[in-house]
């Protein structure tokens, strides 16, 4: 099975998306001159759109294009978007290193802003076709009718995430150095070249992939079927409205044809109702994971801005780029995932009798507890940072490094990474496993939509708190973080996480997993 070629294009896609998003707040507050609250809100809105669009991409893939063609189209859009991002940096009259007291940034041109945001949202559009399809396509390479391959599929999600995290950890360090010390255009150009290379690798495996087809049934295309059902109902309603009963003549053949059409509509409606029930039963779990997504969204915005204010020196010459701290999330995943798969699962299996050790919902809940702890730690570290600022008299000197080591922030990054091992991977497997075979891409798109809505909630919280606290004198999310109160913001998220966790436990305990069914696999060479 050519899972390797499929993984290559997914790794390149994750490099590209994270390569754009992980340090985006530095670009927006530096070369583009936006305020911290404004930039964080803009990033969350973009992330929200990017994570919700896969619902559309999954519908198109499951209903019309298929996963393979969707991946190809999305890869081409990705390459174009990254090339446009690189070119948009050439429109700037600013230096990549502007934005501090010694080198203030001039205002960006309207053309540069339009080019940047257009290409940025094209990246989100490309992810819409990529993210829900690539992982589902990779999981499709395991034959569920083969006991050995079916058992391997659960580990597939662990090792899939492991390989992506390992590569991303290295890439984040490299790209953060390029962005902070050489130029943003070069970093976007590197991502564009990687995406183009991965597409070539993916195409090399075309003849060896497994493709799944359901012949002679509209039920393999649920979204298209819904559209056809609506069109059929509308046509039938119009005919009933326009036909004069006094002039109408009905033959036996026409009556039979009408009866067949009505029967087909009834069957279609019954099928759509069953599929809708499958999705609706997942909504309580989906909704109670939204605050986890709010927590996760802070890692690429406020965590990075916090890190930029600390003492980042390692030795006499080396300075750690603030965005590079996110690599510790990936490193934690790389360390803990093998331990989870090879140690924790076999140990838990002895007591539970489950092949996965613990249930998917238990795994997700464990990660949510760790996520809550990460916010508590982040709030305590920020309180400590503000105390050091006051003691050093640096409240009005935001560009002067605070005499507090960057490594104080390491525990919160490690906790976020540990939460990913449980919740992120657990959500992927849960939403893939608990939908019907025909809706695998839609299931993974539902998982991504958690982070889309979570980013919108985060954006709303940031904007609302910024406005509310500004009217009272000093914003908690001030452009000068030394005068702000991010610790209060973190405590609010921690409180919301606690309430959300209680609701999640209630719904998880009452949730009933779907009954497993056998699947017939067609292999095409």
Please, could you describe this protein's structure?
The chain is globular. The model is unreliable at 214-222, 224-234, 241-254 and 517-525 (pLDDT under 50). The longest helix is centred in the first third of the chain and has 35 residues, at 147-181. It is an all-alpha fold and 525 residues long. It has helices at 3-21, 24-29, 36-65, 67-88, 110-140, 147-181, 184-204, 222-242, 252-280, 283-287, 290-297, 302-308, 327-352, 360-392, 410-433, 440-470, 486-510; strands at residues 310-311, 313-314, 318-319, 402-405. Strands 1-4 form a two-stranded parallel sheet. The protein contains 17 helices and 4 strands.
In short:
With 525 residues, this protein is mainly α. It has helices at 3-21, 24-29, 36-65, 67-88, 110-140, 147-181, 184-204, 222-242, 252-280, 283-287, 290-297, 302-308, 327-352, 360-392, 410-433, 440-470, 486-510, and strands spanning 310-311, 313-314, 318-319, 402-405.
Topology:
Elements: H1 3-21, H2 24-29, H3 36-65, H4 67-88, H5 110-140, H6 147-181, H7 184-204, H8 222-242, H9 252-280, H10 283-287, H11 290-297, H12 302-308, E1 310-311, E2 313-314, E3 318-319, H13 327-352, H14 360-392, E4 402-405, H15 410-433, H16 440-470, H17 486-510
Parallel strand pairs: 1-4
Antiparallel strand pairs: 2-3
Q: What attributes characterize this protein structure?
A:
mainly alpha; 525 residues; 17 helices; 71% helix; two-stranded parallel ribbon; single chain; disordered C terminus
